[in-house]
Design a protein that fits this description.
Elements: H1 3-17, H2 24-35, H3 40-51
Helix pairs in contact: 1-2
Length: 61
C-alpha cells in the first residue's frame, strides 16, 4: 500500500471513530492534496464556496 493510501485509510478510520466517516469525494480530495500540496488554497476555496449559504437566503437570527 502506498503512503498516500495509508494516510487516507488512517484519516478515514479516525473520522469513522468520531462518527464522521469520509465520503469517496473526501478521500479523493485528500489524495489530490497529498499528490499536489500546492493545491490546498484552491481546494479550501472551493469547499468554502460550496458550503457557504448566501446572505439573502439566511434566516434572520
Amino acid at each position: 500500500m502506498s503512503d498516500i493510501e495509508s494516510i487516507v485509510r488512517e484519516v478515514d478510520s479516525s473520522m469513522a471513530m468520531e462518527g464522521m466517516p469520509l465520503s469517496s469525494e473526501d478521500k479523493n480530495r485528500i489524495r489530490k492534496y497529498l499528490e499536489s500540496p500546492g493545491s490546498l488554497e484552491k481546494m479550501v476555496g472551493s469547499l468554502v464556496e460550496k458550503h457557504t449559504v448566501p446572505i439573502h437566503t439566511r434566516k434572520p437570527v
